Amino acid sequence: MRPRCAFRPSLIWSTGLLLTGCSGPQSSLDPYGPDADTLARLFWNFTGFLTLVWVVTMFALLFALRPRPEPARDPLAHEQNAEHGMVLTVAIATALTVISIAALTVVSYGAQRVLFSDRSPSLSIEVTGHQWWWEVRYEDPRPSQTFATANEIHIPVATPVILKLAASDVIHSFWVPRLAGKLDLIPGRTNELRIQADKPGIYRGQCAEFCGWQHAHMAMLVVAHTQEDFQAWRAAQVSPAKPPADAEQKRGQEIFLKSPCVMCHQIRGTPAAGKVAPDLTHVGSRRTIAAATLPNTRGNLAAWIVDPQGIKPGVHMPLIKLDAGEIQPLAAYLEGLK
Amino acid sequence: MSDVALHPRPNEKKEKELRDTDLAGRALTARLAATWGSDSGLLAALSTVDHKIIGRRYIITAFVFLFLGGIAAAVMRLQLSRPENTLIGPDLYNQLFTMHGTTMMFLFGVPIGEAFAVYLVPLMVGTRNIAFPRLNAFSYYVYVFGGLMIWTAFMLNIGPDTGWFAYTPLSGPEFSPGKRVDFWAQMVTFTEVAALAVAVEIVVTVLKQRAPGMTLDRIPLFVWAVFVNSIVIIFAMPAVMFASTALILDRLLGTHFFNPAEGGDPLLWQHLFWFFGHPEVYIIFLPATGFVSAIIAAFARRPVFGYLPVVLALFATGFLSFGLWVHHMFTTGLPQLGASFFTASSMMIAVPTGIQIFCWIATLWDGRPVFRTPLLFVLGFFFIFVAGGLSGVMLASVPIDTQVHDSYFVVAHFHYVLIGGNVFPLLGAVYYWFPKLTGRMMDERLGKWHFWLAFVAFNLAFFPMHISGLLGMPRRVYTYPGGLGWDTLNLISSVGAVLFFLSFVLFLYNVIASLRGGDAAGNNPWDAGTLEWATASPPHPQNFDRIPFVTHREPLWAERQTLPVVTGLAVERRELLVSSVSEAAPDLLESSPVPTIWPFVAAVATGVTFIATIFTPWAVAWGGPITALLLVAWFWPKSIKDDE
Amino acid sequence: MRHAVLFALVLFAGCEREDREFRADPVATEADARIAMTSLSPGKGGPERSGANAKAYEENAYHISQGKKFYSWFNCKGCHANGGGGSGPALMDDRWVYGGEFANIVQTIEEGRPNGMPSFRGRIPDEQIRQIAAYVRSMGRYVPKAAAPGRSDDMSPGKDEQRRLPGRPADGGIVPPSAEMPQ
């Protein structure tokens, strides 16, 4: 267990809140990487101190409202020595405010230095935000080793990874709270965000800048692997799609290639080469579909193909006409694209 | 202190004018009321230039928009009460939260502070009408037309759907087709024209129309607050006016202000918008500090401690509010050094706010607090606003902001500062000044029920949002998946939001019931010290029969028997006393404009022009000259005494 | 006065402008393929030339903007450029080889035309074909100005659709030439 707190008040707070459930698949207070950890500690320190300030202020207010025996008096009659005491108290309170503010600024700046320090990344990944999905492109000096996937970012553990964030349409914001703070994806710019996961696992993230109808369903998963697993995954992703394994999948492929799917989607190794929607070459290997909206099962694939507008109203995936018998083979084919 | 008589230079050409030295008592009141009053009838209602009538309309209209925005919020909370709810779809939800934010910020938050200022400032500084009363009427109509336009558009399903800060490129021509965002941009222009007009009136009224003797250090704190507020408005509004105009030019004329491919920049919008948008938050907050100062002085039974520090803190807040807009943009990938500067400046604004809070607590500490409803709301303000202010300190830190920005934590934070900092003092202000506006007291028992319901419901609705934000819930989502730890928190928030809405229904009931059957109030039911309580409740059209002469910061407490007055003003025409800026020495006697329909007609022409520009840029070409002609008619010399 | 305003608002609530129908009824968008290629017909009244639901698409800014997106995504630009034409004919002028009514354009996209225009039947869903057709109509400003798209967030190829002068069907181009010059 990593030390979570720097001093006592924050410890009390954190344990108190942890009881109510601070952990969660997308909780910024449940850090799994060094940057998120720095942020969580900074957060608890601020919270602890500022809660103290709030409590002291409320006590002062309560005391100011104490019941008092003295009778009402003329509003303009007040004692001079009481005024002196008040001047002093307010002056001290103001001085304390200035000191606290200065101290908090310095603490914040210290954390900022740590967060934005240079750590040589071993890997850089291009992440492009689209309405409403994430395009993930693994660059490599050898063109044959580059590939694209969607809505799922695989990284090796314990290594800093640089994400080059860009947007193709409107502003999005990349936020995986358990690994790092958020950073915007802005058309016409490239921002770089460093993420690092300490343990293998799946970390959910979500678009944090309002981007239109399906902003609510624009999520992604960051999957952290051990170094070996990551290399294996990468090798698998580089290869073109597997040919259909059985007759049903074969029929599914035929349906795919003769249907509108090919206008937008790409499956490397087939004639389907659309560029405007997620690359489906290894869609079967992904954990979710529709930008981490549905678990990737055959049933969900079928449901998504049949009624995308029912699941995500406004999404660019259109309603296409398929015969009842065509849906199962198509879902089977996509599921088989491991 | 004895009365002061003015001796205006006699006008040789005419026979001697009737002056207030020639009359007294009821006869004087009646003559002045006839001179300053407004006639009845629809045309007269639209022609009136009485700051009290227009101020009252402003207040009521702003509350109507508060209710509309509240209904939008309640519907959103119903949608979010459980995960993957399908009560409303994303299209309507996006329109709802845009309407909610836009209404609360532009149609309620800014106007409500100005509305109270329009009503109270002339009474508090002891004058008979606001400066530029026709402009005042014009600004109200422009504001109403802007609000009606945007809500009508929403009812027609062409409501804006890109959020109240309408980030480009989402709000640009490519990603927001149709007229939705055009209506939003024009609504912003409408409200700016209205807000700027009122701001100018307030500044001039405060500087030039104070009653004699009201030197700078005797100005009531409420008046200082709205004065600083007006100055902030004058400097902040042009930025968003430019931004919204640039947006509409991009959308309708094909300019490229925000198009990166042609050398524009989407971030330019954010800079322009927040250069206005952050002062905007203080535009909403500053009048509320005035409410708090007024209510605390009246109910702590002593003047506010630390007059000078509080006034300086108001100015410091107004000034600093222009230096921290970038903290809304910490996640856009700005250079770190620049971001750190804005961390420091954002934290610094806690200091002047802190000073005010300390001074208020010290006032209560030394006073003899009387726990009536207005004071309860101010105490609620302390509880909520201090919490919101402190979470604001967290948001000022660049690193923490990267986690909580655009999450429900921010939603919780700004509702704590805006509802805590504006709405609670405002409700206190309504209970406090209701007797002055209507002549009747509000029901105290219902008022206490209202306070406790609102206070508990507010915290129930918004405190859990801090946690749901920290657990990763982004804002502006029309729904969310279950199982992320957000379900219960959102349900609690929704229950709290519905209760909070009901507290406003209770408030509305209290207002209506008290209007019909409240106890008669008398001139000064709270035994408060400022000048507005020296007038009748509700005040006569002329406000004061004789202009008071101010000898103290709290004149009614200092002069218990009779207020010294200034005499020598004309009775049969609208004559005002203009005084010097710092010493408030009597300077000039000047006529105040009489009622006229022209401001209304000009506002209609302005409104039609603004709305027509949404559909054709040529509207500028024909709307401009028409409006200009109407302004000529408005300003046409009417051969009154001053014009000779 | 206020009551009247409220009443008016409630009345307005009844009518919906700029409706954004994400999930079009598949049956309603079934292609009505029976579009005449010529305005010549025996007897009174010509054959029906325009689709029944043309207005629903042409007067709706959302549909037209979707069409604009698909026009680019599906590489219509490859042949028709931004409407000025290339290896395919220009779409922003008033000359229409196969008719310029909404239904004609829908049919051209669905069925293809000789000399290079491929058939997109089964490749592009019916709903999107209608959206593209509405956009094509907007290129020559045959749609209302309020619904036509503004500029895009990329290099400007010229005046955006909503600022072009309205197309003039009276010039003769909108009627298929076969109607005037039977071959």
Walkthrough of the structure:
The complex is a heterotrimer of chains A (338), B (644) and C (183). Chain A is an alpha+beta fold. Helices cover 38% and strands 18% of the residues of chain A. Chain A folds into 3 domains: 82 residues; 112 residues, Cupredoxins -  blue copper proteins (Immunoglobulin-like, Sandwich); 89 residues, Cupredoxins -  blue copper proteins (Immunoglobulin-like). In chain A, helix 1 crosses helix 2 and helix 5 crosses helix 8. Chain A starts with 7 loop residues before the first helix and ends with a helix. In chain B, 63% of the residues lie in helices and 3% in strands. Chain B has a 3-stranded mixed beta sheet, with no helix packed on it. Chain B has a two-stranded antiparallel sheet with strand order 4-5. Chain B is globular and about 80 Å long. At the A-B interface, helix 2, helix 3 and strand 9 of A face helix 4, helix 10, helix 11, helix 12 and helix 13 of B.
- Strand ordering within the main sheet of chain B: 1-3-2
Could you say which structural class the secondary elements and strand pairing of chain B correspond to? mainly alpha
The percent range for helix content of chain C is 25-40%
As a percent range, the share of strand residues of chain C is under 5%
Weakly predicted, low-confidence segments of chain B: none
Q: Give the fraction of residues assigned to helices of chain B.
A: 55-70%
Q: Given the structure, what is the number of helices of chain B?
A: 19
Overall body shape of chain C: globular
> What do the pLDDT scores of chain C average to?
76
Strand content of chain B: under 5%
